[in-house]
Automatic annotation (TrEMBL):
Residues 1-28 are annotated as: Disordered. The gene is LOC130469716. This is Uncharacterized protein. Residues 17-28 have a biased composition (Polar residues).
Length: 175
């Protein structure tokens, strides 16, 4: 039996599984496609989201999960050939923050700690994303999900082009 099949046992009329005779009649297989994780589809919520912050000025509450998706979405929109997040142009960073503020109705605080926290999260997520690309497609130290086994990064992540990938790989092997 392959791993995409599920065995279902049907009970006989007495409520018990038959113990004698040919049990192959009572077993049927259902082929089910198991879908692996892929890139996030981003934040898709129709009602207004009001992000709450805890006493440490860290996002908390009902919309914190959606906020995390937004952070990830911002991180994956950065070109993979940018070496580090601080090298991203200020216009792009400001655009990410403004988009997030509008989406989650975030008010500015006096010392900009919410904005700083947002940018540190995006920087961390961007770094982790690039590391995942290296581990899965260059060094092969991490197995790809089954849904991505025979695919290249530009097939999985729509924002990566084949040319960007070739440049990324070339820069990885530079001393």
């Amino acid at each position: 039996m392959n791993e995409n099949q599920i065995v279902v046992r049907h009970e006989s009329e007495g409520g018990k599984t038959p113990t004698t005779g040919d049990e192959s009649q009572d077993v049927s297989t259902i082929t089910k496609t198991i879908k692996g994780r892929g890139p996030s589809k981003g934040v898709k919520v129709a009602k207004p989201m009001f992000l709450e912050y805890n006493v440490y000025n860290v996002p908390d509450g009902q919309w914190s999960h959606e906020y995390g998706k937004q952070v990830g979405s911002c991180a994956t929109r950065i070109n993979i050939n940018v070496p580090l997040y601080p090298k991203v142009d200020e216009q792009t960073k400001k655009g990410f923050w403004e988009e997030t503020k509008l989406m989650f109705h975030i008010t500015d605080d006096s010392n900009h700690s919410r904005e700083k926290y947002f940018h540190s999260c995006v920087a961390k997520r961007f770094s982790c994303f690039k590391s995942k690309l290296v581990r899965r497609w260059i060094t092969m130290k991490e197995n790809k999900p089954k849904s991505q086994t025979n695919k290249m990064p530009w097939d999985v992540y729509n924002h990566i082009t084949e040319d960007d990938w070739k440049t990324f790989v070339k820069h990885y092997f530079l001393p």
